[in-house]
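Task: complex structure prediction.
Instruction: return structure tokens for all chains below.
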Amino acid sequence: MRAGSPLRVLAAGLALAMAMTACGPQPPDGATLLKQSSQRMLELKGFHFQMQITGFTGAGEPVQSAQGDAHPPDLHAKVILKEGAVLLEVEVIFKADKIYLKSFTGGWQELTAAQVAQFFDARLLFDQQAGLFAAMRDTTAPYRGNSEKVNGHDAYTVDGVLQGARVHQLLPLIRDQGAYHATYWIESPSNNLWRARVSGNLFDASQAATIVFDFSNHDHPVSVSPPPLG
Amino acid sequence: MITPFRSARLRSVNRPALLALTGAGLFLASLDAYVVVTALLPMLTSVHIAVNRPEQATPIITGFLLGYLAVMPIAGGLSDRFGRTRVFAACLALFAFGSFLTASAPSLSQLVTGRLLQGAGGGALVPAVLALAADLYPAGDRSPVLGAVSALQEIGSVLGPLWAGLVTASSFGWTWIFWLNIPAAALIIWALWPEIRSRREERRPANLDWVGALLATAGLALLTLALYAANPEQSPGGAGFLWQAPLSLLFFAAFVWYERRTSHPLINVRRFRDSSFSGSALTNAIAGAGLMVALVYIPVLANAVFSMNASGSALLLVRLMLGIPIGALLGGWLAYRLRSYRFVAALGLVLAAVGFVMLSGWNEGSLKPHLIGPLTLADGELFLTGLGLGIEIAPVSAALLDVVGEAERGAGASFLIVMRLVGMLVGFSLVAGFGLWEFHRATAHLLPPLPGLNPNFAAQFAFYTLKVEQAIFDEYHLIFRATAIALLIGAAVAAATLRPLARPRWQ
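Output:
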């Protein structure tokens, strides 16, 4: 009996280890995932992003989509604006506290913060306090769903609610009333955020719209340099 | 490759019904050949392409032409092997599938794939229907039927931009140009189904020149890529031009080498030694390029600087398109009366060149002054351009068909269409790249005024808009003048190479 005890302990230990291996590590709950992913995204040395707005955007919201590389607060993006029935593409660079624009013709010119705020201050999207990654922590009622493939990566969905006032900080033309539905696709254990979606009556009290952010090249260093003017 | 079988069994079927059904399919496909030119802007917006990146629209146009060119040369042979109506139905289904992809496209890549398949399906219908018509009617009665089928195709392509403009401007939107193809194609296939299922169609082993078709398609695809200016700010050609262009030439050389050796070539390349043959082939390609430039740039100009909507720009284009069939009839009659291909072909091309020179003088007020009633000078200029492009068709086609003779007439007719499309593809690719490159060069230092604290913003913006419009006009002037020069070269080639009419043989 006594001689058998260490063996039994060993067998039990092995069984436990096997059982644990078979089940795999349990992913953290929604709130923890959001917090860890928020931290991870805020610390990245760089990433590629794509933002697409669909649904009713109203006459006041010119931005339709943006894509580029960022190492907040620096970023370089191509932005598509809606002008009547057509789309127009511009390029923006945010470097330190300078803003540059390459519009329909000609080269780069410098913009003031007031000027860029008139159409799209892309810096706000990934701002350390006001931006999307900080907003992840402010998402209420987080609920972790199943794992899904997003851009070729397995990621857990986390659904939650973001207050209008919070989302309004990202894009000032979004209504600051009410609450919006937010969904995040987070890979575990890397905590990479692959996709985020905010939906609701974003630009009009009675008409729905959705913003989808897709991220890639996590932690690939991004260095933005000021463009030559003129 | 239209080789009639002279099948008594096939002729026993309801010939007019069979011809009407297949003709309807051909008409449907030809309607879509140039349909995008008046629907381009909303199509671009649907797939999130900005209007100041028009170079991204180039593959929507070149994709269709490439698909058409890839399949057309082998479609006749395919219908020999598998049966006319079966190949017709399969190609119409492919065309409908391409229409589905185009209409439902969420992205540019799907839109281009859809257009490519539409082109492949639509292009194959032409030889399949011509061959079927040749099967159904005996040699003596065949000519008017073949003429009617060809005319149906031409009328379809002329009406396409107008049809597209009207649908796009309606509350349905541009996608319905393509959605409607699906039930129409399904209806035609359903009506043809008993014929497709029956085994009475004759089939015979056909020697399909797959290698030749592949070599030519690869060469054309590479040339299209080489000429595609994806970034016209930096270069008027493609980023891979330096390796793609020589490689495409290599494929063309391999094509010629192979065609000389194979027993059943797509085209008898030895014919190129005959100056009348090569001259009419080149002239036909140049005229195709001229037509494509007019088809694409007149609606875009109407939209960009005259602020016309899709139906307005389509109606503007109709003035030119009307001239083409009238010119085609006139050209045939003149060549017959004057007994000269070279003179009539050169006359048509010179008239078209004069038309382009006149168009190149357009400015903001060009559509305004009325000459007689509602007619403006611009209407006359557009009509003259179309008329010239129409006049050259009959003499150039007849000169080439005279060289090839009775035995190769089908192959010769296909070759004429192929050369026209090659001219369209290469000419448009060149013009699109150089035009945009020139626009970027001209506006390289034109900075748009910024709103905000600028008190003179409104005035500065109006001035800036004027400058941009001027740069767009300059781009068009350059494109139209370059096209006029190309057409004059075509006229010189026609005048130097086309042989006189063969003496009529009295029966």
